[in-house]
Design brief:
About 30% of the residues lie in helices and about 15% in strands. It has helices at about 35-40, 55-65, 70-75, 90-95, 135-150, 190-195, 200-205, 215-240, 275-280, 305-310, 325-330, 395-415, 420-425, 440-445, 450-460, and strands at about 10-15, 45-50, 55, 100-105, 115-120, 155-160, 250-255, 280, 280-285, 295-300, 340-345, 350-355, 360-365, 375-380. It comes from Paenibacillus radicis.
Length: about 475
């Protein structure tokens, strides 16, 4: 094991689940949801257009923790079968003498290689009907921070906060700090389509208080959960400071994907290849190594995180990454810019597409349970909220983007020597290996029954 007489820097990676960039005050949201993360961003670099191209949880974390895209990891589905086809960040750092601890992500194929795994309650409500997820995380993480600080080895601490992930159950006073209405108003019918969506109805009713009629109340619970998490994260940051670790610790805040709230019929979940799920935060703080208060508008992707970490920490590790280190970009000398890229989803629908600064193409690989059209096209300049599907009008654009996407797929298949996993992962829905043949079949087949069921879909316990 290498000498640690000149101790290597520590790494804390906040891989927050389901955090929407546009619901953070750091990114201009009108509600003060993230004052402590805003301060952290002011002490480091904030990336304004950071994308997670392959959703949901499992493929996104696979890219985050390997520096590879979905062709290299072979991971596209939430219920991925088998290992991740690349070395993980935890394995790399453990090999060069790091203590590695993972909090809240036990058993997922993307979390392979940590020395220690700690769990906390992130799903089920307490006797007050609330789930203090971030406090539960702190209860196991703060003692671990003390242990890591006392060791003579540098450490890598990965934290998977779950507060922005449904169920949104922030404790008082956070459940009402962004809502002042009457959530039981009988004249408000905005929750009717939510309760009538059979695949999710039972799950949503299991945690949304009985009689809630206003969708704004549920969306405010999301904002409250983010604000609650932010205050608890400050407790962690203060612990880092008190332990004397701040100057020698690289801190990164990001997310695996965003969240749909009341948009696109994808209620209070994270499916649909719309920007509310694809765009995520990225904040990097490393005193003396990155400037304070800098904002970068260039497009970055989640596979950039691992190569950036290794370069910032000046670790002599050979990494054949698909992403690129963002250090040149931080230093105003980007080596290459990303303008268009491939996007994939195997959450509750199997779709892929192509995104440019101007256009978003989404193509279904099998019928989906929202009865959406097979092809969607959005003009991101004129319609940034992606509400107006112009696929039938802009047929030449559909053909152009489809040809660019297909050419990219062929290139990556040749480079990796494997078929696009979007074509081979047919058991993505957990209901056998046959694709759905109709939207009605998908609607009738897919179902989340309760929070316990939802939790079991996220990660299995290690044997």
């Amino acid at each position: 094991m290498p000498s640690t007489s000149k101790r290597k820097p520590n790494l804390i990676l906040f891989g927050i689940d389901s955090l929407r960039r546009d619901r953070m005050s750091s990114y201009g949201y009108g509600k003060l949801t993230t004052p402590h993360l805003d301060k952290l961003a002011g002490e480091g670099v904030l990336f304004e257009q950071h994308f997670s191209p392959s959703i949901p949880t499992t493929p996104a974390y696979a890219s985050m923790l390997t520096g590879k895209d979905c062709f290299s990891t072979d991971v596209v589905a939430l219920r991925h079968k088998g290992a991740v086809g690349a070395q993980t960040l935890a394995e790399v750092l453990s090999d060069i003498g790091y203590n590695t601890t993972c909090v809240g992500f036990t058993g997922n194929p993307s979390s392979r290689g940590f020395d220690n795994y700690l769990e906390y309650e992130a799903w089920m409500p307490n006797e007050q009907g609330k789930c203090p997820k971030a406090e539960n995380l702190n209860d196991v993480t703060i003692p671990e921070l003390h242990r890591l600080a006392d060791d003579d080895k540098p450490f890598f601490l990965f934290l998977r906060h779950m507060d922005p992930h449904s169920p949104y159950l922030p404790p008082k006073p956070y459940e009402r700090i962004f809502y002042g209405g009457d959530e039981h108003d009988s004249a408000n019918h905005s929750m009717d389509p939510v309760y009538n969506f059979k695949p999710f109805a039972d799950f949503l009713k299991s945690w949304i208080p009985e009689g809630v009629t206003d969708q704004e109340y549920v969306s405010a619970q999301y904002d409250g959960a983010v604000a609650y998490m932010d205050s608890c994260i400050q407790n962690l940051l203060q612990t880092v400071h008190t332990l004397g670790l701040a100057e020698d610790t690289l801190i990164i805040v990001t997310s695996d994907h965003g969240e749909t709230l009341y948009e696109h019929d994808c209620y209070f979940d994270h499916h649909g290849l719309y920007d509310c799920t694809l765009v995520v935060p990225l904040i990097i703080k490393f005193p003396g190594k990155v400037p304070a208060g800098k904002r970068i508008s260039d497009v970055t992707v989640i596979s950039d995180i691992m190569p950036t970490i290794l370069e910032l920490m000046e670790l002599d590790v050979q990494l054949d990454a698909d992403g690129q280190s963002l250090v040149p970009m931080i230093n105003d000398n980007p080596e290459r810019r990303v303008s268009e890229f491939y996007i994939t989803e195997c959450t509750w629908m199997r779709k892929h597409g192509w995104r440019t600064p101007h256009w978003k193409l989404i193509r279904s690989l099998e019928p989906d349970f929202h009865f959406k059209p097979e092809v969607e096209l959005y003009n991101l300049i004129e319609d940034p909220q992606e509400n107006n599907n112009v696929a039938e009008i802009e047929t030449e654009i559909v053909e152009l983007l489809t040809s660019r996407m297909d050419a990219y797929i062929r290139k990556r298949e040749e480079q990796t020597g494997r078929t696009n996993p979007m074509y081979t992962n047919l058991g993505w829905h957990g209901k056998g290996d046959e694709p759905f043949t109709s939207s009605q079949q998908a609607y009738d087949t897919l179902h989340i029954g309760s929070s316990l069921t939802a939790r079991s879909l996220q990660a299995k316990q290690l044997k």
